[in-house]
Amino acid sequence: MKFRSWILKLKRAWLASQVNHRGKYSIERLLALEEYTRTTPLLRAVLVCAGTPLPIIVIVFSQEALPLEDPENGWQVNWGLWVRACILSGTVSLAVAVQLRYLIQGLEMSSLQLIVLSALMALGFTAASITVASAWVFPIPYMVIVMIPTFLLLFVCIIRVLLGAATFRNILTKRRQFIRFVVAVNIQVLMAISYPAYQLLFNSVTGSAYELSAFLLLPVLKLVLKNLVALCLADLADLIPENIIFTVHFFNAIYLATSMQSASSTFAVSAIMIIDLLETGMTLYRIYRSSNRIMKQLQQTIGPSIAEDNLLAAAYSLCHYHDKFTKEERTQVQVRSFFPHQLSTEGHDLLRKLENGTGPTFLLRRTPSRCRR
């Protein structure tokens, strides 16, 4: 009995650490996805998926194509490094500003303001880095990390000037949302620090008996960061999966590939690849089982008429049968997404009907000018 109790506790602890059990798909987002898949040509969807990462890929390759001079020649002749810093700071500041715009309710930032912010940050950060290099040492050790306080100070000052005093004070009054934004940015900064630190650790033990142990730290680091992101966005459940994919998984994939390139042990590389494949396989299997279970439940609720439909179509059909559920069951449903989505008139009407019979929803919404698909 004690062994069984211990196993159950271990299982509960493991499930609690799995962020894939915390995401919730809002009905608004479900309806938007169903309409998008029904009305969008396959070619357009493929082009959107393939074209979305192209700008950042072009930026990265353009930055890496810039030549670097010998550091011993001094900062004056190393123009390639400063152009790289300019591109990096401008891109990162734009990404941070977009997060600010979406995580603070009611904040309006025009495209022109974003462009001006990015340009000023690029010039200001580069100028500050050159000043530090000329007054201290060149190259600046761990430049990206050392210059983070300067970057944040410049960002706050420029935001204050661009948005004005009233808007800036309004941001600060929304304490909970502002703290969530700050925590989200700090988690990304933590990733920028922790993964290079891990890479340094791995390089120091490459070829030794500790190489496999260092490899096995990477999944642990990934799990910790995923849970930090999930905790930060705990009340925005439908944003958790995409944020984890485009932050933690992205960082992890890059450093996993980097570690494998410098690894000397075939056994260590094989072990980490097997662990990664097993994790992916288990996730896909859980999705498959959950989909089958949900389909069976939907067929029992709605009837066998949806037997040939996919899960998305079945879930969409379920929204029209909300009267079949008890009030307690409906209170567990998240109707509104944190972001408004483009919906048809029928979709908006259905959402209004569902809101009249459900519990807590995301009532704080943005203006339709920034609707997402």
TrEMBL record:
The chain crosses the membrane at residues 42-61, 81-102, 114-138, 144-166, 178-198, 210-232, 244-261, 267-288. Keywords: Membrane, Transmembrane, Transmembrane helix. This is Uncharacterized protein. It comes from Phytophthora aleatoria.
